[in-house]
Structure to design on (531 residues):
């Protein structure tokens, strides 16, 4: 494949490309930060289920004539709280229950969409997203979200560590574990809702899971692990957007493949043996 | 004794505590109090509700009726973080998910924190010094850079004890603490508990199956079998009649 460098540098000067780079950086960093805790708490499938259930929110929006941008955030927050309640109430296996929840919501959303004959726009964008379609208002929102995540996780880092390690040790110390978990799940649903626009339903969980797992392979120390995950999240997003511009590839999948390549490298990295055990 | 509390105020006071587990009543109408600087043991057969009792006291299990007061104050959502900061708990079985990236230094450091809203780097120098000091007390100083997943069961127990010791506290709750330690470490362990009690005025509440150790080390004993059978000094409680009632007539005394 011949690389058209001149075209590439011209692209970099275009505002939509710059927004894509900045938006990717913000989303990737947020995903890496939140993902590092999500993975340790075994909530990565929860994030995935949230992503798939977003389709229900969007089809409800289409049915009611509300823009997906408006309905997605409140829908996913309510949905996340509902699922958390369901998990506590039934005490079934988390992965099985999440499977039930997202199958049902996927089925329901397809049924709803079958009533809406004129829904043409954007099922493709919904599934795979488009970083290049990021608007300036999205950037503001993404920055705010990253800020909220940094402040919340930064100020509660020590408590989060203990809750992650052992709920009972945390409870004995007087930490309100349930409130912590609820706050975390709400934050996760916010990130999923915001990220869907750029990376789509199918790829959103990769943003949360992959940088964290790669970081885990590279580090045994908690704060270092979080820092690596954040760096990888942001770095892969930038690299992915650039690569997609360079080779004219779809942006979301290119970012995910960049993350996956780094995961493979970390897995095969010889230093890992010394670090792990 | 360095305890700042007035002697008449008990460290822990439990009144008419009843705890349900599922449909069964695991603990019925238990009342007792623990004075500052005392070492109390809870004895009783398997399934007597010993762990349930301490878990309810620690806020790990809800209780149906009764009252638990720590340092003279009732434990509610508002007061719990402050009160529980002075309580350390060493669980019976502590399983670490080896996939969680945490070093011994990280874990013991968490014992030092107040765990409210704070910037994560605040006090790191003091924390590090306290961690090294606590690990030295349990003779585990060499373990500090190791990841939790690489520790043996006995080493993890020592590290958890360091987590409890890293900051002065008023009450230490132990659920069959020395389980998993070898004999020599067990003797060290009791020496350390004695030191904490005598030199630093800690109160200790422990579940134990080792009646000889209880007789030798503890100031008072609760004999529990779903309800409180007897409380008092080791001589009173570890009496054949009481133990027969608790453990059944087949119980063999050493």
């Amino acid at each position: 494949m011949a690389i058209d460098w001149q075209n590439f540098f011209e692209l970099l000067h275009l505002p939509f490309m710059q927004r894509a780079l900045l938006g990717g950086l913000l989303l990737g960093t947020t995903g890496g930060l939140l993902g590092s805790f999500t993975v340790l708490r075994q909530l990565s499938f929860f994030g995935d289920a949230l992503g798939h259930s977003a389709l229900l929110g969007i089809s409800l929006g289409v049915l009611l004539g509300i823009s997906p941008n408006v309905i997605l955030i409140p829908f996913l927050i309510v949905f996340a709280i509902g699922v958390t309640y369901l998990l506590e109430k039934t005490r079934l296996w988390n992965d099985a229950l999440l499977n039930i929840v997202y199958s049902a919501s996927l089925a329901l959303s397809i049924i709803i969409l079958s009533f809406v004959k004129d829904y043409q726009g954007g099922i493709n964008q919904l599934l795979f997203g488009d970083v290049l379609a990021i608007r300036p208002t999205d950037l503001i929102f993404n920055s705010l979200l990253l800020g909220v995540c940094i402040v919340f996780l930064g100020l509660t880092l020590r408590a989060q560590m203990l809750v992650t390690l052992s709920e009972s040790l945390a409870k004995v110390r007087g930490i309100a574990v349930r409130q912590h978990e609820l706050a975390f799940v709400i934050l996760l649903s916010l990130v999923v809702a915001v990220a869907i626009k750029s990376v789509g339903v199918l790829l959103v969980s990769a943003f949360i899971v992959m940088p964290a797992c790669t970081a885990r392979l590279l580090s045994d120390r908690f704060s270092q692990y979080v820092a690596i995950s954040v760096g990888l999240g942001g770095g892969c997003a930038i690299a992915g957007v650039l690569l997609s511009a360079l080779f004219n590839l779809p942006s979301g999948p290119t970012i995910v493949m960049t993350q996956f390549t780094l995961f493979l490298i970390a897995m095969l990295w010889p230093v890992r043996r010394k670090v792990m055990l | 004794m360095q305890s700042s509390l007035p002697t008449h105020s008990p460290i822990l006071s439990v009144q008419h505590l009843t705890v349900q587990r599922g449909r069964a009543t695991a603990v019925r109408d238990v009342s007792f109090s623990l004075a500052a600087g005392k070492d109390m043991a809870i004895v009783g057969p398997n399934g007597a509700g010993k762990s349930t009792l301490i878990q309810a006291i620690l806020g790990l299990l809800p209780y149906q009726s009764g009252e638990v007061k720590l340092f003279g104050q009732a434990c509610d959502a508002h007061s719990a973080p402050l009160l529980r900061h002075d309580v350390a708990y060493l669980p019976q079985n502590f399983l670490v998910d080896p996939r969680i990236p945490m070093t011994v230094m990280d874990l013991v450091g968490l014992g030092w924190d107040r765990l409210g809203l704070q910037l994560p780097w605040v006090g790191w120098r003091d924390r590090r010094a306290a961690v090294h000091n606590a690990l030295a007390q349990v003779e585990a100083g060499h373990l500090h850079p190791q990841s939790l997943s690489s520790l043996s069961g006995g080493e993890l127990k020592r590290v958890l004890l360091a987590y409890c010791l890293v900051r002065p506290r008023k009450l230490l709750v132990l659920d069959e603490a020395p389980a998993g330690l070898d004999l020599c470490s067990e003797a060290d362990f009791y020496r350390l508990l004695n030191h904490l009690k005598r030199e630093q005025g800690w109160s200790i509440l422990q579940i134990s199956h080792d009646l000889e150790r209880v007789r030798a080390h503890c100031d008072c004993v609760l004999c529990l079998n779903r309800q409180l059978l007897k409380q008092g000094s080791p001589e009173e409680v570890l009496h054949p009649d009481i133990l027969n009632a608790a453990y059944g007539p087949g119980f063999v005394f050493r």
In short: Chain A has one domain: 15-268.
